[in-house]
Amino acid sequence: MRTTSLAGVLSLSLSAPLFSQTFNQTATYIALMRSSVGGLPPVATSTLQGDLQDGVALAIRYGYVPSSSRMDLPSMNNFGLTAVLPTGTASTVSITGGLSSLSRGGSDAWIIGAGGDLRLTDWAFSQGRSAPHLRVAVNGQLDYSKPRESALIAGSVGLPLSIIRPNRPKQEMQVVPFVTPSFAFGNFNPDDDTGLSHESGARFMIGGGLGLYNRSSSVAVNFGFQYVAVENGQVQLGVVLTLGGR
Predict the structure, then answer these.
(1) Does residue 75 form part of some domain?
(2) Which terminal residue of the chain, N or C, has fewer Cβ atoms less than 10 Å from its own Cβ?
(3) Distance of alpha carbon 159 from alpha carbon 157, whole angstroms
(4) Averaged over 78-92, what is the pLDDT?
(5) Any idea what DSSP says for residue 171?
(6) Would you say the C-alpha torsion 68, 188, 32, 4 has a positive or negative sign?
């Protein structure tokens, strides 16, 4: 049997728990952060923006995950391309492909996944046609990621919240803050000859960001973050450039 560890699989030694970190916690964290679920910033879709989408939008995504010395994990650079398709006046489906690269050791992992979101309701903060509204939606994502010596599955179900201002002039710049609390799960399935055990776990995850767009332009940008509630976990920071859809 070949002797290995996550230093070879995912650049993490799993020969013993590191500090109070457990094997399960770390494996779940890696499954989430090497996927679009936790490793890429959320996309400010037309559902979150409270806007109508016309046609397919392509979101170019980059997420940076800092290294974690307590987990002996290197930093990660994650890249993704997401096609967002409207399925109604306030819902979308998306398909994502991407790559997760470690700053040292391990192997690159390719990513593929699908997701969607749907508006549930809007609540106005005050009277008036253009008064700010709190938009409440539901979303989900399921990914498969493949480093060289393991297979990773990650998913999430969340309740995104955003603040929108309807009925604004088309040429006016729109600023949309949003948060994306969710329940996330990760599955770590190493190859048989690694000697590592199969692990699955679920964690709370919080994401969010700030979307900037103009209804008269086909280009939009949003900044975002994701944080998996695991001991010694790091905050992923990233940016999304969206083309088309208007």
Answers:
(1) yes
(2) N
(3) 7
(4) 96
(5) T
(6) positive
H helical segments located in 3-59: 6-9, 23-33, 36-39, 46-49
Question: What pTM did the predictor assign?
Answer: 0.90
* Ramachandran assignment for 103, one of left (phi > 0), alpha (psi -120 to 50 degrees), beta (any other): alpha
DSSP labels, 86-123: EEETTEEEEEEEEEEEESSSS--EEEEEEEEEEEEEEE
Does some domain include residue 214? yes
pLDDT by residue (tens digit) across 96-150?
999 999 998 889 999 999 999 999 999 999 887 778 999 999 999 999 999 998 9
Three-state DSSP class for 76?
A: strand
* CA-wise closest residue to 154 among 25, 21, 36: 36
In a domain, 1, yes or no: no
Domain assignment of residue 106, yes or no: yes
Report residue 220 as tokens: 């939009």
Question: Residue 97: which CATH number?
Answer: 2.40.160.20
What is the C-alpha to C-alpha distance for residues 129 and 137, in angstroms, rounded to an integer?
21
